[in-house]
UniProtKB/TrEMBL annotation:
Domain annotation NAD-dependent epimerase/dehydratase: ranges: 10-247
Gene3D superfamilies hit by this protein: NAD(P)-binding Rossmann-like Domain
Annotated organism of origin: Liquidambar formosana
Lineage, uppermost ranks: Eukaryota, Viridiplantae, Streptophyta, Embryophyta, Tracheophyta
Keywords: NADP, Oxidoreductase
The keyword DNA repair is assigned to this record: no
One annotated GO molecular function: oxidoreductase activity, acting on the CH-OH group of donors, NAD or NADP as acceptor
Coiled-coil ranges from the UniProt annotation: none
Protein name: NAD-dependent epimerase/dehydratase domain-containing protein
Superkingdom to which the source organism belongs: Eukaryota
Regions that span the bilayer: none
Length: 332
């Protein structure tokens, strides 16, 4: 990842979200000077202009308001770019009232609209932000085997348990591969685990809310939504690495290890004993095989993962600074 000026013009969808903002920050840091920031119409993107380098004379950070379901608007955002980072997709902990409309359609049709525009404008490569939620839960995975990129989420299993977020991410990724193959496009997918780190955006995103709730005593085991965690800055670095490295293809798991959510809670509790973090007994992810270097494909490309303790500390500091976390004291 060498820093040089006049890199390709790129579009980032979901640019003002948690991962999107870190990606814009990383692209600016690495010398990208034309960035189309595609954001949901009416949402706040002002924080992007406070990122280091955003206000430089030679930088063109342009905001495009585009619902990913609006193919004309998304087309305008992508026109003039040779790279696209598709990040936008509903990412929520709330149970949807209408899963198809709220989660599945924006994920799937949104991805197809982005890819169609990228095809039309002859974009060189599209980096699709998928998720571990397109890999797990997968109850048919062989026991005592570390999860890797060949695992796909079991849709029937998720639907029968009303787990719509994994359904949306799985169908979106499948649609992306089908479209890419049919149209001979260069698409690469990244599969982040639970992303943590400082919030650059003003609102609280779902993955940082997982840590916030854990710190406030939540007993949710994250049974269906967990493989491990990763610093959001490493995700942004990995997205850029996957855009810049010539011979990459397929799926890239992005996590600093695979382990139980209960083990994560232990680490959080050790770092922040003043918070009432629940101590889980037994396995929170039954049968999950732990592995430190699970993101082997990215490690082989040179990515060095930030220790998860740093990501936890950064998140907590940021949650406090933004007023999303009160300093709770355990009764003495
Ligand atoms: N955070 C994680 O732990 C994690 C892990 C794996 C994968 N991912 C994936 O990473 C991506 C970004 O997630 P995030 O954590 O950064 O969450 P986030 O902060 O909620 O970002 C999602 C972004 O997508 C935008 N969006 C949603 N629906 C849209 C639509 N119909 N049209 C245009 N924009 C739309 C949101 O805009 P508004 O906020 O204005 O609605 C927001 O900017 C998602 O694809 C998510 O599935 C996240």
């Amino acid at each position: 990842m060498n820093k040089k000026q006049n890199k390709e013009a790129v579009c980032v969808t979901g640019a003002n979200g948690f991962i999107g903002s870190w990606l814009v920050r990383t692209l600016l840091q690495q010398g990208y000077t034309t960035i189309h920031a595609s954001v949901y119409p009416g949402s706040d993107a002002s924080h992007l202009f406070s990122l280091p380098g955003a206000a430089s004379d030679h930088v063109r950070l342009l905001v495009y308001e585009a619902n990913v379901l609006d193919d004309r608007a998304i087309s305008k955002a992508i026109e003039g770019c040779t790279g696209v980072f598709h990040v936008a997709s509903p990412c929520t902990l709330e149970d949807p009232h209408d899963p198809q409309k709220e989660l599945v359609e924006p994920a799937v049709q949104g991805t197809l609209n982005v890819l169609e525009a990228a095809r039309r404008f002859k974009v060189r490569r599209v980096v699709v932000t998928s998720s571990i939620s397109a890999m797990v839960p997968n109850p048919t995975w062989p026991p005592n085997t570390v999860f890797h990129e060949s695992s796909w989420t079991d849709l029937d299993y998720c639907k029968s348990r009303q787990k719509w977020y994994p359904v949306s991410k799985t169908l979106a990724e499948r649609a992306a591969w089908e479209f890419a193959e049919k149209n001979g496009m260069d698409v690469v997918a990244i599969h982040p685990a639970t992303c943590l780190g400082s919030l650059l955006q003003p609102s609280l995103n779902a993955s940082c809310a997982v840590l916030q709730q854990l710190l406030q005593g939540s007993k949710d085991t994250q049974e269906y939504h967990w493989l491990g965690a990763v610093h959001v800055k490493d995700v942004a670095k990995a997205q850029m690495l996957l855009f810049e490295t010539p011979n990459v293809s397929g799926r890239y798991l992005c996590t600093d290890g695979i382990y139980q959510f209960g083990d994560f809670a232990e680490r959080v509790s050790k770092l922040f004993p003043e918070f009432p973090v629940h101590r889980f007994t037994g396995e929170t992810q039954p049968g999950l095989t732990a592995c430190k270097d699970a993101a082997k494909r990215l490690i082989d490309l040179g990515l060095v993962f930030t220790p998860i303790e740093d990501a936890i500390r950064d998140t907590v500091e940021s949650l406090k600074a933004k007023g999303f976390l009160r300093q709770e004291q355990l009764p003495s």
